[in-house]
């Protein structure tokens, strides 16, 4: 039996092989350097009882049906005769350098599994399968044992305008499977999972988190095996490799572990994603996006007026959304015809860009490259570029192009390259509003290839990932796009919750958040400006309303908070989001600078609280011995007698007091927010 270990400051993983496929024998808290791995593994092996095989089938890194594994196998594939592949994997050695690669062979096959230590205490795990004859793959998934004491599985569900809904289930018996079959990481299945001790909170409990860095949909299986072991598998969505091939690979799975609550797995992910993002303009500019102001109505005089008002409020980048190309007067036509509509922009973008630049803003533009409308010159010329059957159900009146075709990608490259080459554009919002008709990994590879080619040709352009809001958010797209459009909901109450939950892995700098119209277009709610603008100020800030609708008081609040964001964004966008434990109806988070010297707390009251006085706000991640100055910047309205010491004036308290007892917040009205700045003295 051979053993290997990989360590990060947060976790140890021990792998072993008895001559067959390697298994993960231990995944948990860091172990001392001198741990006897053979003794560790021997001590952990369970005994047999009646009704079992004479030995426990191994839970190998890709569980093998051939070895009587009683659960779901990690590889389901077929050869050209249709025979099921059940390889007799033999361990064939390691490559050890920056990463540990475990090599395996079987007749005509090779399987490499690579584990590496990443920054911020993460581990990365991936697999690559090669064959000397074409195979048909159903799925290829890596498996890890779920540590025995982690009984809660938290997944994220979601939908358009209500992304990132955590769903926690207690692992019991049987199988939990999700297979994201919509061709993108998906509103309904962002590829991020947490296994934790029962009832873990943001600040208490032990957890591991797994993230599958792929934008084409993943397959997750969590299964309790008959004798009680549990496995978690991750791979591409099943059936998404549609063609016979000789090479297959999983995406890299990032693994985090911590025992200081869910924050201790969220923050390593926020940092790792931030490191992986492509370079972006610094400081991060305040966006103005015109979508919810004008939709498809592009009138040069109106756009110029809106741009002027947006700049006066503090915007620094003007993004022209859908409606500028073809004859796109609504969502029934023109996708694919990426030339400027001369009816709307008779002199091209020259006058608008000149105006935007004169106002001190940069200019950004919307595309939806992977899509086509039947009512388009592109579709009329190339109906064969469509992905899927001609009679498929339309989505927003549109169809998906076959991004696996080089001619499709070349056409899109030429059109987008021509626009980016002709005009001074430093930002592209890349949208994706129709699902693929079936799961298809070649589409994801195609879109990555097109994005990579465009990024290489236009290195100063930044890209934003949007898919009807947050439908394509994962570590794969986030190595190409420095920002995601988290949701089409600009309703501050919804947005607060969505962005709070998404901080399970998304850093503030990558998360777009805009102040929408007074009457929210996706919920009909009317919320106070203070709540709306402080919600946007928690992430990469922007506006998306018609600024002409603002009252003087609303404009003053918007400008004041935007100025505050611009003064603080450098450290906030480089800092961590620590979520605080609050009762139902409240949401609070603390954004802490990388050097720990300052922080800001956003404490929102969404609904009335059950008790008269909300529980004290306990902070986290501070130096217990250091004194901190706290100052309330935004006072939430409430009863005339609601003031607490913090709302009456500055407080100086030690980190120990702030973390052990906390501070009393005023019992505020619902739909309000308190903002508190903190500074280490
Ligand atoms: C869907 C996006 O999520 C919106 O922000 C907007 O860009 C529209 N598409 C434009 O059609």
Overview of the molecule:
Helix 7 packs parallel to helix 8. The strands form 5 sheets. Strands 4, 5, 6, 7, 8, 9, 10, 11, 12, 13, 14, 15, 16 and 17 form a 14-stranded antiparallel β-sheet that branches. An 8-stranded parallel β-barrel has the order 18-19-20-23-24-25-26-27, surrounded by 5 helices. Helices cover 20% and strands 31% of the residues. The mean pLDDT is 97. With 681 residues, it is an alpha+beta fold. It is built from 13 helices and 33 strands. It binds (2R,3S,4R,5S)-2-(hydroxymethyl)piperidine-3,4,5-triol (DGJ). (2R,3S,4R,5S)-2-(hydroxymethyl)piperidine-3,4,5-triol binds at residues 291, 321-322, 366, 431, 433, 466, 468-469, 485, 488. (2R,3S,4R,5S)-2-(hydroxymethyl)piperidine-3,4,5-triol (DGJ) binds next to loops.
Give the overall shape, derived from the CA principal axes.
globular
The helix tally amounts to 13
Low-confidence stretches: none
As a whole number of angstroms, the C-alpha radius of gyration is: 26 Å
Q: Assembly state here?
A: single chain
- Distinct bound molecules: (2R,3S,4R,5S)-2-(hydroxymethyl)piperidine-3,4,5-triol
Helical/strand content category: alpha+beta
Mean pLDDT: 97
Major sheet description: 14 strands, antiparallel
> Helical amount among residues, as a percent range?
10-25%
Tell me how many strands there are: 33
Quote the distance from N terminus to C terminus.
Answer: 56 Å
Percent of residues in beta strands:
25-35%
Which key phrases capture this entry?
binds (2R,3S,4R,5S)-2-(hydroxymethyl)piperidine-3,4,5-triol, eight-stranded parallel beta barrel, 13 helices, 14-stranded antiparallel beta sheet, 681 residues, globular, alpha+beta
């Amino acid at each position: 039996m051979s053993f290997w270990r990989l360590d990060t400051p947060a976790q140890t993983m021990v792998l072993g092989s008895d001559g067959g496929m390697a298994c993960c024998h231990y995944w948990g808290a860091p172990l001392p350097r001198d741990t006897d791995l053979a003794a560790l593994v021997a001590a952990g092996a369970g005994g047999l009882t009646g009704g079992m095989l004479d030995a426990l089938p191994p839970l190998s890194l890709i569980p093998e049906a051939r070895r009587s594994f009683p659960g779901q196998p990690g590889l389901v594939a077929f050869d050209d005769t249709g025979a099921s592949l059940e390889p007799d994997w033999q361990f064939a050695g390691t490559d050890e350098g920056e990463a540990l690669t475990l090599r395996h062979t079987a007749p005509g096959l090779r399987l490499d599994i690579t584990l590496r230590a990443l920054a911020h205490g993460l581990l990365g795990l991936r697999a690559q399968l090669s064959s000397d004859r074409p195979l048909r793959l159903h799925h290829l998934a890596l498996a890890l044992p779920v540590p025995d004491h982690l009984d809660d599985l938290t997944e994220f569900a979601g939908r358009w305008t209500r992304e990132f809904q955590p769903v926690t289930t207690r692992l019991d018996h049987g199988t939990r499977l999700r297979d994201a079959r919509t061709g993108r990481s998906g509103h309904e299945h962002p590829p991020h999972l947490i296994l934790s001790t029962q009832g873990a909170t943001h600040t208490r409990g032990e957890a591991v988190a797994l993230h599958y860095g792929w934008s084409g949909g993943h397959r997750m299986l969590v299964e309790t095996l008959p004798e009680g072991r549990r496995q978690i598998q991750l791979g591409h969505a099943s059936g998404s490799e549609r063609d016979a091939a000789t090479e297959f690979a999983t995406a890299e799975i990032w693994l985090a572990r911590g025992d200081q609550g869910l924050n201790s797995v969220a923050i390593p992910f926020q940092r790792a994603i931030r490191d992986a993002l492509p370079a972006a303009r610094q400081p991060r500019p305040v966006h103005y996006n015109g979508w919810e102001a004008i939709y498809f109505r592009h009138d040069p005089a109106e756009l110029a007026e809106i741009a002027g008002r947006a700049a006066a409020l503090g915007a620094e980048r003007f993004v022209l959304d859908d409606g500028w190309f073809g004859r796109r007067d609504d969502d029934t036509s023109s996708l694919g015809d990426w030339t400027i509509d001369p009816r709307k922009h008779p002199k091209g973008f020259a006058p608008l860009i000149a105006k935007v630049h004169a106002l001190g803003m940069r200019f950004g533009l919307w595309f939806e490259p992977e899509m086509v409308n039947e009512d388009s010159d592109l579709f009329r010329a190339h109906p064969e570029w469509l992905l899927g059957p001609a009679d498929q159900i339309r989505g927003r009146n549109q169809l998906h192009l076959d991004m696996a075709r080089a001619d499709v990608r070349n056409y899109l490259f030429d059109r987008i390259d021509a626009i980016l080459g002709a005009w001074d554009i430093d930002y592209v919002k890349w949208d994706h509003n129709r699902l693929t008709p079936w799961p298809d990994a070649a589409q994801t590879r195609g879109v990555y290839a097109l994005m990579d080619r465009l990024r290489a040709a236009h290195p100063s352009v930044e890209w934003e990932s949007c898919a009807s809001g947050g439908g394509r958010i994962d570590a794969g797209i986030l190595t190409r796009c420095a920002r995601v459009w988290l949701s089409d909901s600009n309703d501050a109450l919804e947005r607060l919750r969505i962005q709070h939950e998404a901080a399970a892995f998304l850093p503030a700098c990558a998360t777009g958040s805009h102040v929408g119209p007074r009457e929210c277009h996706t919920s009909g709610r009317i919320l106070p400006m203070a709540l709306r603008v402080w919600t946007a100020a928690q992430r990469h800030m922007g506006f998306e309303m018609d600024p002409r609708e603002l009252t003087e008081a609303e404009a003053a609040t918007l400008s004041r908070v935007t100025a505050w964001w611009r003064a603080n964004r450098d450290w906030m966008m480089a800092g961590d989001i620590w979520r605080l434990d609050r009762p139902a109806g409240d949401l609070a988070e603390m954004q802490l600078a990388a050097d720990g010297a300052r922080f800001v707390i956003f404490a929102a009251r969404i609904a009335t609280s059950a008790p008269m006085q909300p529980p004290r706000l306990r902070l986290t991640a501070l130096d217990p011995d250091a004194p901190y100055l706290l100052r309330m910047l935004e006072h939430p309205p409430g009863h005339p007698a609601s003031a607490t010491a913090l709302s009456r004036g500055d407080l100086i308290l030690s980190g120990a007091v702030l973390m052990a007892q906390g501070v009393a917040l005023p019992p505020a009205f619902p739909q309000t927010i308190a903002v508190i700045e903190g500074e280490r003295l």
